[in-house]
Design a protein that fits this description.
By secondary structure, the chain is mainly alpha-helical. It contains 22 helices and five strands. Among the domains are: about 110 residues, no CATH class; about 210 residues, no CATH class. The protein has a three-stranded mixed β-sheet. A two-stranded antiparallel sheet has the order 1-5. It starts with 5 loop residues before the first helix and ends in a 7-residue tail after the last helix.
């Protein structure tokens, strides 16, 4: 079979485009599409990307679905979005749709247990890269870690995670007032050093996956880490804090030993709010809102920890005498606690929408939901992005863009285009307005006559609940990002007095010793 390299095709296309396209006729459609996508990305040529993506999507419809093909389509859509970004605004619908569909495709690859670990790990890495395009850095870090859990030799994933953390470390050092609550910097530095060792150990895999240029980038990145890593102090933690650390569930990227010892691991916050009403004697309500959301998050996380079915112990008293429905369903307070944890975590998104609506003065904050916040026509079918939201995002508010993009992933389209977070929303709606029943066997799943009861295996629901908690965690970081940026944009009036509100520690005011 005829072969042609990407380099040869790119050179030929730049000199004689028609001849280059004609040279693909000897290849099967899948090979030709892969070359078109790679060349389109290398040359920033949208027409090549369009052709390659179209061919692969036609093959997916006409033949049985292939995970590798889905992976290639996802990469193609991501490349096309990156190419469009140079000429488009951050809210360009075509750009965001490409990134949306890239995530949908990567999600399909990750959920395909028949796909090999290397392909799934590569897909997770590129999934993380796509999330970064819209400021979703917290989720990207989670996905990079997942990529290495799937295939520990994925050096590209370790490199991308290390580069993200290095960028954050630099930002935190230059602006400690803004990012000081986001992470303990010493522990962050230790993690960067640990990742650099993984990167150094996987240069061969990096070259195989991303080419020699990526290896050179990796070597350069590692060379920038000139601070020797201090030995990480091992500290004794109870099983709850071990669970938080191993699953990256603190509202802090990394926590110090002291934070685990005093139990204060949820520190992310904005530092101050400017108030033009200089006669105001009260602290802006947004501080109270953040406190409530963080406490809700901590409750959802703790409920999940206590309600897991990984052992026989539980803090919940089972006082309910239930009739058995003979379909391996499980009932009781522990099950309800698990469903409540998922619901509480997802409901934080609605609270974020209310907080943003009030702070950005968009009106009707009391009636706002995470679905309606973004649009002018709250009840109509036309989804027209609110002009104030659009202006804020296009001004560079990455936190708001991240939340808007996250919202898109919870929406429901046709089945093959449903956002990868849609299931989290559906189960929140089910446990809030209808019924969710869990099973410890695969019998009776999906069985419901009037769609009033949703059935799920307990293991799958535990994974879904953990995903909901991770989503709420990421959203709270993005919320703080959005507020910080909006505060920076506030006009500084020369003729008016503005008050900058900074709040003291709640435990200190209440007389609690938070050092213990």
């Amino acid at each position: 079979m005829m072969e042609i390299s990407i380099e040869d095709f790119c050179q030929m296309y730049q000199e004689k485009p028609d001849d280059a396209l004609a040279s693909l006729k000897g290849l099967d459609n899948e090979q030709a599409a892969a070359i078109l996508i790679d060349a389109g990305g290398a040359l920033s040529e949208t027409s090549l990307l369009d052709d390659g993506i179209s061919r692969l999507e036609d093959l997916q419809q006409s033949e049985s679905e292939s995970s590798f093909r889905s992976y290639c389509i996802a990469n193609g859509r991501h490349l096309r979005a990156s190419t469009r970004r140079r000429l488009s605004s951050a809210t360009d619908n075509d750009l965001l749709n490409d990134l949306f569909m890239a995530r949908v495709r990567h999600g399909k690859v990750l959920s395909d247990k028949q796909a090999g670990p290397e392909l799934r790990s590569q897909s997770a890495t590129n999934f993380g890269n796509a999330l970064l395009e819209t400021g979703r850095w917290v989720e990207a870090l989670d996905v990079y870690q997942k990529a290495r859990r799937i295939w520990p030799r994925n050096g590209v994933s370790a490199l991308r995670e290390m580069q993200c953390l290095m960028g954050f470390h630099n930002a935190a050092q230059s602006d400690p007032a803004r990012y000081g609550t986001y992470s303990d910097l010493e522990r962050l530095g230790q993690c960067i050093v640990e990742l650099s060792s993984v990167v150094e150990d996987t240069y061969t895999e990096i070259g195989q996956l991303a080419g020699e240029q990526a290896v050179e980038q990796a070597r350069h990145a590692v060379s920038q880490i000139n601070t020797p890593g201090t030995i990480r102090k091992q500290h004794e933690k109870d099983s709850f804090f071990e669970f938080i650390e191993s699953n990256s569930l603190a509202l802090s990227l990394f926590c110090s030993s002291a934070q685990y010892e005093n139990g204060k691991v949820d520190t992310a916050a904005f530092q101050h709010i400017t108030d033009d009403d200089w006669q105001s004697t009260s602290v802006p309500e947004i501080f109270a809102m953040l406190n409530v959301m963080k406490a809700d998050y901590a409750l959802a996380r703790q409920l999940f920890y206590e309600a897991r079915f990984d052992d026989c112990t539980t803090i919940f008293r089972e006082t309910v005498k239930s009739g058995d429905t003979l379909d391996y369903s499980i009932y009781g307070v522990q099950v309800s606690a698990m469903c409540s944890a998922q619901r509480i975590a997802y409901d934080i998104l609605d609270k974020i929408a209310v907080s943003l609506s009030g702070h950005l003065k968009l009106g009707q904050a009391k009636r706002t939901t995470f679905d309606s916040f973004w649009y002018d026509d709250k009840n109509g079918k036309e989804k027209r992005l609110n002009e104030a939201v659009k202006q804020e995002i296009n001004a560079g508010n990455q936190g708001l863009l991240a939340l808007y993009d996250l919202h898109r992933d919870t929406t429901k389209e046709v089945p093959e285009k449903a956002g990868f977070l849609r299931a989290l929303k559906e189960y929140r709606n089910s446990s809030t307005h209808r019924f969710t029943v869990l099973h410890d066997e695969n019998i009776g799943l999906g069985r419901t006559s009037r769609k009033l009861v949703d059935h799920e295996h307990v293991t799958q629901f535990e994974e879904l609940t953990l995903s909901s908690i991770r989503l709420a965690r990421a959203a709270l970081f993005y919320f703080c990002d959005a507020i910080n940026f909006a505060e920076d944009r506030k006009p500084k009036s020369q003729n008016a007095i503005s008050l900058i509100h900074e709040v003291p520690d709640h435990d200190y005011i209440r007389g609690r010793d938070c050092t213990k």
